[in-house]
Design goal:
Chain lengths: 348, 395
């Protein structure tokens, strides 16, 4: 696969500047909003017109663009892009009975607005694509980057996952049963035994390259699956590990996408049951909330753990004596149909 | 790396609900642009569109779809998907294999149901049957579940170049061993969202669009779906092969959110990159299926890019004058038209052209003719500067 050279993340936690994920910001209304930075790098006139998804996507990308010697293309995963602008425009259509409308919300609402704004602000004329396959949008972006780097290992690509909470998508997803009916604190996410999770949003960006030098992590493998059967997922995890884990290698940490939805626990427990005693188990959705691009944020968290060798205690589900983190397995399911495994290792 | 061949195709457009009906209409130089009969909007009789004159219930009956929550967009996609797999002769176990990828594109997903979405998005009481059908992924997730596809499933949205990028992604999955075959394509149906969106930008025409004409005054929105079956050399074997996908490129214009640069950087880079990927010279291209939307901006910029790259460009035309701009479907529909160019060694006339654009002075093909063709280029340029070009070659 490929190397990750730099990372950047805007999330509901302190992940952007003065990074501190030891403490957890609390949310009590089932919506975990990001804490937005000042966006110094975005001209004010442009910033004003940006919807939140575009803002956090561009905001997270800018530090990487600033530091990178060159970027050969931009590959973004986002299920919905600027949904808030989209529904704002939709509301205008209905409320003004298709009268004269201003195009700003329409232009900002297209899912490719994040990738295109990044290309615009960085004058990047390279490969530019937006993957929107719901809970596997980021994973497809990652496979895309893997192929790009196999084609041109000397190149560097900006890879990202972005999704926002809008009142509207919260309503739609609430109606389809994805969020809890009762209000809870994100700190109690795993103590609930009800259906649904809590909403989240965020943007994670990675500078990906084919060269080991200067890298902070290596992505060893990825697998995406579509199935409603946890036994099948378990079987597939076995073959994934067989394929990517060399003789004598161990998983130090299993980063689980458990999200407090009682309907999905069986997927996570059947994967957990394959792990040995040498593997710690940790969770992150109480930090991110649930959204289609949460796996992108989890990859940022995994990179952070590999770099610092620190696993915040609030994340721990199953502890052991190990002090170092060299291999992290990430598993996530979005809904009960879209699954992904990622294997990440330390390059030191 | 393996070559990638097209071994099957299916299309539903305003010109007809099969590949052969589309070819007949293209040969005759027929336009399917009209006012709206089925879709309800304030602009139904004020503007002109490429509407498929088949009601949803008729599509449902024909496709034997009884489930709730299925949008027109999904029905159109299923129609094209079924024709494509039938055409390729893929059996159930091949379709449902781990080696089969499904890459579909669209720009507004199930948002053709603008009024239902408005209702669902603005209250928390009781959802409609469509609550899980609005996003772009819902269409491909429906196809994936219906046919039990187990390989990589993806949805791409790069605005008007979406399905060209779905074709590129599917081909690369095959080349890199992520899949042995890929079912690739795109769909969009008419939606108040896009009609009002494009109208707010003042680029919809009340007349039949006039690609590359000096007095062009905007595009006609259309609807449609198309899927192609891509297979590697081993899988294609001695099946009927329509063409080889030899060249492709995706580049960004990096100029403006909703218009292309006068210098035509994105379109030029996409066409040039596709030639380089295919290892071809500009003179090797026999015909260009231009993006040619009929807007002031696109046609001027695309002309500039063609002149810049080709000097004296080869024969070209835009089928937007036949079916309108089908957005997320256009790249795949026009890829199929390119396949028909190659298979039958013929080119179809662009309609409604009278005078060339001063400066570039390019004249599109205006009459049907037979012509020896080895390589055909297909262009798709979108909002956000997303430009992609494909080259199909006679296998």
């Amino acid at each position: 696969m490929f190397y990750i050279h730099q990372t950047s993340c805007i999330s509901p936690q302190q992940t952007f500047s003065n990074i501190d994920i030891e403490k957890v910001n609390e949310f009590t209304d089932n919506k975990m909003y990001v804490s937005e930075p000042a966006y110094d790098g975005i001209p004010a006139g442009i910033l004003r017109r940006m919807g939140k998804a575009v803002r956090i996507g561009v905001g997270a990308a800018l530090p990487l663009i600033k530091n990178a010697q060159k970027i050969d293309g931009i590959v973004i995963g986002t299920a919905n892009g600027g949904l808030e602008d989209c529904i704002k425009f939709l509301n205008q259509i209905i409320q003004y009975e298709e009268g004269t409308l201003t195009p700003t919300n329409f232009v900002q609402s297209t899912a490719n607005a994040i990738a295109s704004q990044i290309s615009l602000l960085s004058a990047n004329k390279g490969y530019n694509v937006t993957h929107v396959h719901r809970g596997l949008a980021f994973e497809n972006a990652l496979i895309d980057v893997d192929m790009l780097l196999k084609e041109k290992p000397q190149n560097a690509y900006l890879l990202g996952g972005v999704d926002e909470i809008s009142v509207y998508n919260y309503n739609i997803q609430f109606l389809s049963g994805q969020y809890k009916k009762e209000l809870i604190s994100n700190k109690d996410l795993y103590q609930t035994n009800s259906e649904g999770s809590i909403a989240g949003e965020g943007a994670a960006m990675f500078l990906a390259g084919g060269q080991k030098e200067g890298a902070i992590a290596k992505l060893d493998g990825i697998k995406i699956l579509h199935a409603k059967d946890e036994k099948f997922i378990q079987q597939e995890l076995k073959s994934f590990l067989k394929e990517y884990l060399k003789e004598g290698e161990e998983i130090d940490l299993f980063l689980s996408g458990e999200n407090g939805d009682a309907r999905l626990n069986a997927f996570y427990s059947s994967c957990e049951s394959l792990l040995k005693e040498k593997t710690k188990v940790a969770r992150y959705k109480h930090m991110t909330g649930e959204h289609q691009s949460a796996s992108a944020i989890s990859l940022w968290i995994a990179c952070n753990i590999l770099q610092t060798h620190r696993l915040p205690s609030h994340m721990v589900k199953i502890e052991n004596e190990k002090k170092e983190f060299n291999k992290i397995l990430l598993y996530n399911t979005y809904g009960n149909m879209q699954h992904s495994f990622m294997l990440l290792s330390n390059t030191k | 790396m393996t070559k990638v061949f097209v071994t099957g195709m299916g299309v539903i457009s305003p010109l007809g609900d099969s590949v052969s009906l589309n070819r007949n209409a293209l040969k005759e130089g027929r336009s399917a642009i009209s006012t709206l009969d089925l879709f309800t909007t304030r602009y139904a009789s004020l503007l002109r569109f490429g509407e498929i004159k088949i009601e949803n219930q008729k599509l449902r009956d024909k496709l034997k779809v009884n489930e709730k929550g299925i949008t027109r967009t999904t029905l159109l996609a299923l129609h094209a998907f079924e024709e494509a797999i039938k055409d390729s002769g893929l059996n159930f176990s091949e379709i449902s294999s781990f080696d089969t990828a499904l890459i579909g594109a669209n720009t507004v997903g199930g948002m053709c149901l603008t009024d239902e979405l408005y209702h669902d998005a603005n209250q928390e009481i009781k959802g409609s049957e469509y609550v899980a059908s609005y996003d772009s992924a819902s269409i491909n997730m429906y196809l994936q579940e219906k046919f039990g596809i187990k390989g990589i499933i993806n949805t791409i949205n790069t605005a008007c170049s979406s399905s060209a990028n779905a074709i590129i992604y599917g081909a690369r999955l095959i080349k890199h061993g992520y899949a042995k075959r890929a079912i690739v394509g795109g769909v969009d149906s008419l939606a108040k969202f896009t009609i009002n969106g494009f109208n707010s930008l003042h680029i919809l025409s009340a007349e039949n669009c006039r690609p590359f004409d000096k007095d062009r005054n905007g595009l006609n929105l259309g609807e449609g779906a198309a899927f192609l079956i891509l297979e590697g050399e081993a899988e294609a074997g001695n099946k009927k092969i329509y063409a080889e996908l030899t060249g492709y490129n995706n580049s960004n214009d990096a100029y403006h959110a909703s218009s292309l640069s006068e210098t035509a950087d994105g379109p030029y880079l996409a066409m040039k990159g596709a030639l380089d990927e295919a290892g071809l010279k500009p003179t090797d291209i026999g015909f260009i299926n231009a993006h040619g939307t009929g807007t002031e901006n696109n046609d001027a910029v695309e002309s500039t890019a063609m002149v810049k790259l080709f000097g004296n460009p080869p024969a070209f035309a835009s089928t937007k004058s036949n079916i309108g701009h089908t957005l997320g479907a256009s790249g795949a529909i026009e890829a199929i038209y390119s396949m028909l160019n190659l298979e039958h060694q013929e080119i179809y006339p662009g309609l409604n052209f009278h005078n060339s654009i001063p400066g570039t002075d390019l004249i599109p093909v205006q009459t049907f003719r037979e012509m020896p063709l080895k390589h055909v280029m297909s262009n798709s340029f979108g909002f956000g500067g997303n430009c992609s070009s494909l080259i199909f070659s006679k296998a």
